[in-house]
Amino acid sequence: MTVKSRSFVALIVLGIVAMSVAVWFGFLSGYLAANKETQRANDLLTSAPNTSSEASAEPSELLVEGVPTVGEYFAVMRIPALGKDWLRTVSEGTTPEVLDHLGVGRYEGTELPGTPGNFAVAGHSGSSWTPFAKLDTLENGELIEVETLSTKYVYEIVNAEVVEETDVNTVYENPKFGTSLDNDQWLTITTCLTEGPKDLRYVVYAKLKEQSVR
Q1: What is the pLDDT of residue 15?
Q2: End-to-end CA distance of the chain, in Å?
Q3: What is 57-126 written as a DSSP string?
């Protein structure tokens, strides 16, 4: 093998090693971020409440009562069918600053849990450590639990569909599946397709089944 050939092979090997290291660090970074988010959600369930009525410059690391400001945590979500360790915070807002910590964000202007109407949220999908990477594996009848400072809400999945990313009716209107909407309480989850066109969204609709005091 000539010196030129050996140099070419060496460059290929170095490239493969560099790519492997980048993939490993990307996986490790995502894995650690997901673990941190789960721990944050656990901490929120056991921490004292934030009852301050004044908005602070930095998001509170405690569950808040009432209407939250953007970035504040007001609930924790569990989806047992996605694994016994699946636990995520629910924050106000769907900006990258809110969603990039791998939690769940509420669309501003939609309802809060416990209020008739549509409580609509979003979260990332794609990599295995993102909250909704396996959202499309959920089936009708499976449960989603949402815990606020004072109440636990249990929603039952009734349907799912793929929609255009511009279809805001899935968020700002009540889902319509042949049932009366009078005083119905809905949870709508939206996320990008884990595999597929980036201009489409996967949507899960769930209806409140029961609620109880924490």
Answers
A1: 42
A2: 72
A3: SS--SS-B-SSPPTT-EEEEEE-GGG-TT-EEEEEE--SHHHHTTS-EEEPTTSPPTTSSEEEEEE---S
CA torsion, points 119, 125, 200, 144, in degrees to nearest 10? -30
Instruction: Return the closest-CA partner of residue 161 out of 138, 145, 178.
Output: 138
Say what the alpha-carbon torsion angle 39, 44, 48, 51 is, to the nearest 10 degrees. 150
Q: Match 């996967």 to its residue by tokens.
A: 202
DSSP 8-state secondary structure symbol assigned to residue 135: G
Residue type, 191: T
At 37, which helix (H) or strand (E)?
helix 3-46
Residues 107-140: tens digit of each pLDDT: 999 999 988 889 999 999 988 889 999 999 999 9
Q: Among residues 57, 143, 47, which one has the least CA distance to residue 89? A: 47
Mean pLDDT (whole number) for 149-177: 85
Record the tokens describing residue 161, joined without a space. 């569909």
Strands 151-164 and 185-192: unpaired
Based on the number of CB atoms within 10 Å of its own CB, is 69 exposed (0-12), middle (13-18) or buried (19 or more)?
A: middle
Q: Is 42 exposed, middle or buried (0-12, 13-18, 19+ CB in 10 A)?
A: middle
By CB atoms closer than 10 A (0-12, 13-18, 19+), residue 57 is exposed
